[in-house]
Amino acid sequence: MVRIITRRDFMRGTAYAALGAAVVLPYQFKNTRVVLIRHKDVWDSESKLNSQIVQQMLDEAVMALLEQDDPVKAFRLLVKPDDIVGIKSNVWSFLPTPAELENAIEQRLLNAGVQKKNIGIDDQGVRRNPIFQNSTALINVRPLRAHYWSGIGGCLKNYIMFDNPSDYHDDSCANLALLWKLPAVKDKTRLNILSVLNPQFHGRGPHYFDRRYVWKYNGIIVGTDPGVNCRHLRSI
Amino acid sequence: MNNIPKEGLIEREIRYFHAVNCLNNYYYIASENILNLGKNTQCVFAPYRMDQETGYLLLVQYVNEQQAEAAYESFLEIYMPEARETGFAQMENKKWTMAKINGQYIMIVFEAPDKDRASKLLSGVILKEE
Questions:
Q1: Residues on chain B touching A151 (C-beta within 8 angstroms)
Q2: Does the CB of B78 have a partner CB in chain A at under 8 Å?
Q3: CATH, domain A32-235, list 3.40.50, 3.30.70, 3.90.550, 3.30.1050
Q4: Which of B67, B124, B128 is nearest to B98 (CA)?
Q5: What CA–CA distance (Å, rounded) separates A30 from B45?
Q6: CATH 3.40.50 residue ranges in chain A?
Q7: pLDDT digits (tens, 9 = 90+) for A142-162
Q8: CA-CA distance, A32 to B62, in Å (whole number)?
Q9: Testing the interface with A: which of B25, B36, B90 to mutate, by most A Cβ within 10 A?
Q10: Which of A65, A136, B15, B103 is the most buried (most CB within 10 A)?
Q11: Residue B28 forms contact with A (CB below 8 Å)
């Protein structure tokens, strides 16, 4: 018989007991930090991203996240020089992960000592990409947009290309979190980065885009927990 | 909109939906679908200002009375068995939850600061049978 966990179990603090021994107890009450950083000048007057400001925003966010005073020191806490790092991006044509953000991440990985040949940036080809097949670390980065089925497309959902996407669309994408247990992914993600530079807040279909529903929020969100990032996104 | 009380209502945060995933996204109740929500249930979830706090009203319209009754029983049995007779109970966080069935409708107030406030909110709901 399935043990039903209600809101009241969480109030009582018994939810973890109800979940059984699979829950790792040391983590049950650990706070997760999420950093939102915004910069009013990140878009120029021609609506192009200022790559220096994007780099600055990423640096400040990661330093705040990891309580470091230097971005390279912070990234060295995330990756080791011998890591093979896949940057899981998002290429959706209307609202892709900005190249400026991808480049900023890659730059700090290089500064942290990761070799250029061991860094890959990909989305739809991750299952065929040798960097991702052999990866020891992943950085997850994508923009926010409303999604017809799941509600929002955020960090949790960004790993859908590691499997057959259509397998995860049933029941309002209820099983998205299972993606994070796939062998290609499990325990590899060092950082989740959400671009809220120009999110889309409304959509009427799976690949719906309309400029009227995109606004400049000028931010990025950085964290280690994809679910927390997504929760924060929904609030935005 | 016309069925639920206006006093204290935070209109811009009202949610309309059918499925349990949506409800759990706004206000987690349980790991299983204990209210039997689905494509044929019409749901409104509305927050209300109650002094400095926020209470919530969930109104669900089922296809028929039998389905509403089954869902009501399920909710009480699993979520607040101590309220089988009365329909209300004080939760572990000291807030009140109150549930009521009326024909093909179930209405539930969550997070009310006191029993009277929960009761007043429920009594302000206007129902129309189909």
A1: 22, 25
A2: yes
A3: 3.40.50
A4: B124
A5: 30
A6: 32-235
A7: 998 877 777 777 888 899 999
A8: 39
A9: B25
A10: A65
A11: yes
